[in-house]
Request: fold
Amino acid sequence: MNTLIDMIRAFAELPPSRGITFYPEDLEDGHFLAYRELHGLIGESMQLLREAGVGAGDRVIVPFESERDVLVAFLALVGIGALPLSIKPYTFGGDRASYAEFVQTVVERYRVRHVLCTSSVAELALAGESLALPRPTRSTTPELIDAGPEDLAFVQFSSGSTAFPKGVPVHHGRAIANMRFIVSLDERRPEDPGSTWLPLYHDMGLIGLMTCLMVGSPAFLHSPAQFLMDPIGWLHHMSRTRSTVFVTPNFGIDYALRRLRDAEPDALDGLDLSALQWVYLGSEPINMDTLDELCERLRPYGLRREVFKPCYGMAESVLIVTCAGREHGPRQRSLGPGAPLVSVGKILPGFELDIVDEDGRSLEPGQLGEIMLRGGTLAARYFESETPICDEGQFYATGDLGCIHEGELYIAGRVGDRMKVNGQSYFASAFEQIVELLPFVRPGRVAVLQPGEQVTVLAELRDVRVLFARRQYQQALCDHLFSKTGVKVRPEDVYFVRHGQLQKTSSGKLRRAAMAQAIQSGQLIETDLVRHTTDRLRGYFQKIQYLRHSARKSA
Reply:
């Protein structure tokens, strides 16, 4: 198997018991689609797309929802030889104007012809020719193009943490090669089920799912919203399906743990996670404290700590670059002030790593610097860009900080995360993990920045009543940080922010530069939060008083 076209052809030969189960409504009632049926639906979807005027080479934006017909259409576009550009779908309740502007920019920048009208964007006025989402109902043998390993298959996007997301071209051969790395690491067999709730517009979600498709193993696909609504239900889902592998960012660990802490004693009755063999843990800094707590809470239910495999990758390399091995679970080591660093394992075959200082000089093992990468499945250049990702023979500056120790890579954070305090280097992600330990702070909703000389903390609150003793809690946060790091933060540099004020990329990474600019320009004003919250509380109290008054009159 050398191309995604070969993968699609192979669906027709797989046993009828193997396929994907989609969960459009909840975590229990799924719709099974055998790979053989998927093969036929791709054929009809290709036919419908061709009738709509889509041909080889046409560029088509795909707002990638976790839905059967969207996945089928994506594979059908690949089968035609069109070029799908996978983007985040519109989120209900989001800013329509901003989303439309984003799509308009993608259309103009990449000369896109069609925009696939998936469910989330059907009612929006978007740039480009609208293309109805095919809803295939019968099986048709697909007339697939002939493609080679060097042919372009699709475009995925970088996270966009510092600028507009960049298009990353994914060639057939590179996609297959990176997926082979993944399934060789976890020793995937055709009978090993994989589960995912990750969004398919993100490299971890799409490539993670397609590893199941390549192997022909059972796959269970949910939407991110289903996991967010019921993470304990997700654990029960993995128990019922005897899932052996899945992929998650650190956010998923922290989020599930918060729900477990508040769960009723019988919430885990019947849970059995002993089938789980391999959990790829990547995308963001790993909080070992919460990971260890999750493992301890779920140990009686068969979860083993060693199944968690920290890994490192990026859209520019299709996905994975390094990963912890089968022989051990997560481990960490200290490198000066701040939280210890977590190993993300050894580099995969074909890639080369170098760690350099601020002047570009290579550093010795154990020294912290910027991670440089070349070789492997790394793309040569960004899509529609004359600027190479790295010149031939040169290294790509990843923007990530880390070090090599005993042949393994340890990640510290992004270059922009590094802060200088009293001549020492600290990492914002380490500070954020420390702040998230406070009981009045919402985990995953913290940003630590250094817009000027002072360290600034932005945090969302678990309970808005904290605001009535705001100064006391600001001081408590500062004292907590000082006790853990030795760094003094002023209470006036602690902002308790509203939901939505922490700016993030489509993949959930903090946009620190944008938030630092908002602080410096005065756009981030904490009194807005106080006024907003007190207005809401006043409304709640008035409603309670009205109900009490009505009840007394009725009595």
